[in-house]
Specification:
The chain has one domain (3-256): Spore Coat Polysaccharide Biosynthesis Protein SpsA, Chain A (Alpha-Beta Complex). It is of the alpha/beta class. The chain is built from 8 helices and 9 strands. Helix 5 (137-153) packs parallel to helix 8.
Length: 257
């Protein structure tokens, strides 16, 4: 029986984590899925870690602890590395924000698509039916602009949302990427890491799709952790680096085995 792995990078999400994990548990149990949740506590100074440990007593939760804050890139890298070392062929990996802005019930459709043979499924704000609720106007404009730029420079069929962290991957896709990049799959420190991962996965992806995401920032408790100016600069340098990085030759069949 395949396992659904939920990777939750968490920094000061004590107000959100219990509700999110409870929702994941209820949905997976109702649908008879075997699941595990990997919580990566990124040096939280609130009760995030205490809540994760409490829930782990009765739920299938693994906890990775960063003694100090190391940012999203390192956190998501550690989560994916952990799953890559423990998963089995046929498993599915889902990454989500731990701030309760990503609806867990959407994972059912994403799991179905991966089970049917899709390599990657992204919960997209830009697919028909998607939206962002509770996000400031300038953040929406910035997000739309950077995604359009990424779509033009690094085109991937069927994909419009390059930055959303709510994704489902086949375990085979992630394993191919780790076999090729090793510990260099994720080198970005901040929010740009999600675009970096997608760009690096492109040569290994045969099929990808999106499902519409209504992103509910109004359900999130606590302050946003994104520093917009810093993130814009990081995107500029990441795009520049990836554009001039030596291309992977997709004709090299060895990297797909």
């Amino acid at each position: 029986m395949k396992t659904i792995w939920f990777v939750l990078p968490a920094y000061n999400e004590g107000k959100n984590l219990r509700v999110l994990i409870g929702s994941i548990h209820n949905i997976e149990v109702i649908n008879n899925f075997k699941y595990r949740i990997v919580v990566i506590d990124d040096g939280s100074v609130d009760d995030t870690l205490d809540i994760a440990k409490e829930l782990a007593i009765s739920l299938p939760i693994d906890i990775i602890i960063h003694p100090r804050n190391m940012n999203l890139g390192r956190t998501i890298a550690d989560g994916l590395t952990y799953v890559n070392e423990h998963d089995k062929p046929g498993d599915i990996i889902i990454t989500m924000d731990a701030d309760n802005s990503h609806p867990p019930n959407l994972s059912i459709e994403m799991i179905s698509k991966i089970t049917s043979g899709t390599d990657l499924v992204i919960a997209s704000r830009y697919k028909k039916g998607g939206a962002e609720i509770g996000l400031r106007f300038y953040r929406r404009v910035f997000s739309m602009a950077i995604n359009k730029i990424l779509q033009i420079i690094f085109p991937l069929y069927n994909i419009k949302d390059y930055t959303c962290g709510y994704r489902a991957y086949s375990s085979q896709l992630i394993k191919k990427a780790f076999n090729y990049y090793c510990d260099k799959l994720v080198t970005e420190k901040g929010f740009t890491c999600m675009a970096e991962i997608l760009i690096k996965l492109r040569p290994f992806i045969k099929t990808a799709s999106e499902v519409p995401l209504v992103l509910r920032y109004d359900l999130k408790q606590g302050q946003s952790k994104m520093k917009v100016i810093r993130t814009i600069i990081s995107y500029f340098f990441m795009i520049k680096r990836e554009m001039f990085t030596k291309k992977i030759h997709v004709a090299d069949e060895n990297i797909f085995q």
